[in-house]
């Protein structure tokens, strides 16, 4: 029998089942060449970066698998004393959070009374927002309450909501900036 | 937590739950909402601990517990108060711990009157303003403060994450025998004596044997040799008496000696990656970083008056000046000098409650121009969604930063009010900017988890397109504003122009360095720019800068400690101190001096944790001692001692002015020194304990867009005969912006549903998997019906009560869409921390889908008519804003 044919016969699952270590055909004997060739996305990663799950406050450690500067997979980090490698359905699905097909990548702008979104460059949007903050602050500044004879040095013209999904460094800069602007209505999900 | 123990954070850490001998999970469905943390409950169970789940609904937490105790939503204080009474009536308290480590011995002033004396009110109630004069609750002979100080702090401690105020020193009178009729211990006994097993059964619907099994399990598993832990989540906080729920657990844990010890404690299970962080480094109106209060408007009130009024004489708040001045130095750098009070004058002043819901009301009334929504979706996540959407529709400008186009960005064309005709797109004048945000994988930074642990996440890839971190947004917004104002000579622009705002930026997008911000949070010595080692190194003379004093030490030695990831298998103990960094000073169980007896020896070998090493002359153990390291257990402060040196060597609660765990809170709470059972704002039952039905100082908003269902005793209450309670699912996250947009998660939980019992299904003709409409006087929503034994009808006050369970994740956007449960709830708040009551309210339920368009309004109007709710003439704004100012 030519070597090629022998190889072919030996590769049949039935032959492997009879000859190999898997007589019940539940494991290696049943594996196809296709399955055998499959590789986990994690194997092909260029780098693995330590991170933390962004959902609840258990604080599960994550490993972010990156290939060609794209996140390809997110797994639990076994080294964490809190989570020991585990993730819940949300944490396990978080690759879809960062690579979502419906994620927004461009600034969207709706003008007053407008009926549709419009495009705006990020630079222009930032400039317009800075102008809005300055104008509102000027228009609503409260230096003193003369009736009560007290100094106020503040604006109640604008408010902020959000923070519990943000980084500490981000919240720190937000509070610092708003306070220096005299804005006090700064709040987050803690009230929910 | 703050008022009871001194810090507004979990007293323990998740892994330590494995050491508990009994765990009570109440106000939380931990197995489904914090599943990975729940592994430590299972570890405890493996080791023989008894696991108890108290919840209106049988869930996977109940399935894995040894005991499920179904309870009527909104009655936990009656249940927990019953346990307090059980402990005291049977002498089961941990006597040595109670006498030495709590304020049980303290004598209260003669003017104090209890709810037992005043039929549900405490002394000092001002009916006209719905507020308490809390000076009536003070310790005997306490130092009384000027009114300014009272206004700033006294009634706001919990809001500031700590208990303080006029009780700034050691109590003048104590009775170690606990016999004095006005000592805290005796007052506590009196307060809860009617919270008997019979009453618990009557109020909560819990059969007496079941209640007694819980009470006995806690007592049997506490003491020198054993410890018990409590876990809670928003099932406790989202009530008009939410803070007092947690207070009741604190009282139990202090009586049983379970605070500061391994396997003990109270673990707050927070629902967002950094909700602990966002109160520590607050995006909250009433505090500055590290729970330093924001300043209120008073005439002639400078830095020293503020420190005098807000700081404490003894304990670590005795260094408020060092913490505050270091923060001012971090913010205003060289411009902050001793001569100008370190720019203290640059801080804006509060005059009232400026919390989120008040801002919402101001927007509805047209008094708010601009709004930043950064990672939050109030159109779905907040009670009474209609009110919030109307607020958004009445702004001049709105900035939304998120990954997706969430409902709070799209309200102007797809809010439910557009469909009903209440809002019209072309009438809405709000200018909306939707800016894409960077994900956690696209930026550096720290989250603070539920156990006060700061963990650094590394940037893995660049954010795509216009997506940017919020750090980028904030830094560059500030930079632009400063550039635009650069030539201004207006004095009001000096604080922003003189602000230190020079963070190094990287890469083509000019991303600011998060590590540089963390360094500022940690603080440095100004002379050499070197990172300080912790808050004990901070000075009040302007020689140190520190952004967040409680986080000081996280960058000690110039090392990013939150970025440490040493595997737990390479560490010696379960405390695993070299994984990330926990505030304060990497202490994992706080108040851990209490794990040793007054002499500094472990209470038992089995529960050994931190102890006094006499040879070395210091505290040592498995964790970093939460105590002055060198202070001997027998230290007795001299007359002139200050701050931490004013506390004794056997006083573990180092943030409190008297070093004690507070069973009784003389100041720091707006609604009473002891937790008291009140019915929710909307309840089908009478409060059987007192004539006072609901929390007398709860925060309510009587206005057109926020009608309340009639409560028990008011005509029309029977129109809304059922209790509804909201909750989360494992597969979704809060208002859904980060979960309803994911294919896997939307497939796993594709649709809004309600959970009801077979008995209620029969009573109302509801069929499994068909539709139901749930109605309140706010609106009606539809949901698929899940008929299940998990919802148990309860016998309460002699009749059967049905409860309706509602997940709250849905809205009009995303891959999986549905009605929002929060639209059903009214805005009614806890007066201490302004948290919404969405865990207990009343409703009706009927078969079929809800009507569409204007017909929906007609259905709700019909219900209101039948219930006698007049939206056009709401009751006067009696309690509005109470508790905030």
Topology:
The complex is a heterodimer of chains A (192) and B (885).
Chain A: H1 3-11, H2 13-19, H3 33-37, E1 47-52, E2 61-67, E3 70-76, H4 89-92, H5 94-98, E4 108-110, E5 118-119, H6 122-140, E6 141-145, E7 150-155, E8 158-161, H7 168-181, E9 186-187
Parallel strand pairs in A: 8-9
Antiparallel strand pairs in A: 1-2, 2-3, 4-5, 6-7
Chain B: H1 2-5, E1 22-26, H2 30-33, H3 39-46, E2 50-54, H4 60-64, E3 67-69, H5 76-89, H6 95-101, H7 115-118, E4 125-126, E5 131-132, H8 147-152, H9 184-192, H10 197-204, H11 208-220, E6 228-232, H12 234-237, H13 242-255, E7 266-268, H14 277-280, E8 287-288, E9 292-293, H15 303-310, H16 320-332, H17 356-364, E10 370-374, H18 378-381, H19 385-392, E11 397-402, H20 407-414, H21 416-420, E12 431-436, E13 445-448, E14 453-457, H22 470-484, H23 494-497, E15 505-506, E16 511-512, H24 514-522, E17 524-525, E18 544-545, E19 581-582, E20 610-613, E21 618-621, E22 699-700, E23 722-727, H25 743-748, E24 753-756, H26 758-764, E25 771-775, E26 780-787, E27 794-796, E28 799-801, E29 803-807, E30 828-829, E31 841-847, H27 854-867
Parallel strand pairs in B: 1-2, 1-6, 2-3, 6-7, 10-11, 11-12, 23-29, 24-26
Antiparallel strand pairs in B: 4-5, 8-9, 13-14, 14-19, 15-16, 17-18, 20-21, 22-30, 23-31, 25-26, 25-31, 27-28
Helix pairs in contact in B: 5-10, 5-11, 5-13, 17-19
What report would you give on this structure?
- By secondary structure, chain A is of the alpha+beta class.
- Chain A folds into three domains: 35 residues, no CATH class; 58 residues, ADC-like domains (N-terminal domain of TfIIb, Single Sheet), CATH 2.20.25; 65 residues, no CATH class.
- Chain A has seven helices and nine strands.
- In chain A, the strands form four sheets. In chain A, strands 1-2-3 form a three-stranded antiparallel beta sheet. Chain A has a two-stranded antiparallel sheet with strand order 4-5.
- The mean pLDDT of chain A is 93.
- With 885 residues, chain B is of the alpha/beta class.
- Among the domains of chain B are: 267 residues, Dimethylsulfoxide Reductase, domain 2 (3-Layer(aba) Sandwich); 102 residues, no CATH class; 61 residues, no CATH class; 169 residues, Barwin-like endoglucanases.
- Chain B is 24% helix and 13% strand.
- Chain B is built from 27 helices and 31 strands.
- In chain B, a hairpin with a 4-residue loop joins strand 15 and strand 16.
- The interface between A and B is large, with 118 and 170 residues.
- Strand 8 of chain A pairs parallel with strand 10 of chain B, so a sheet runs across the interface.
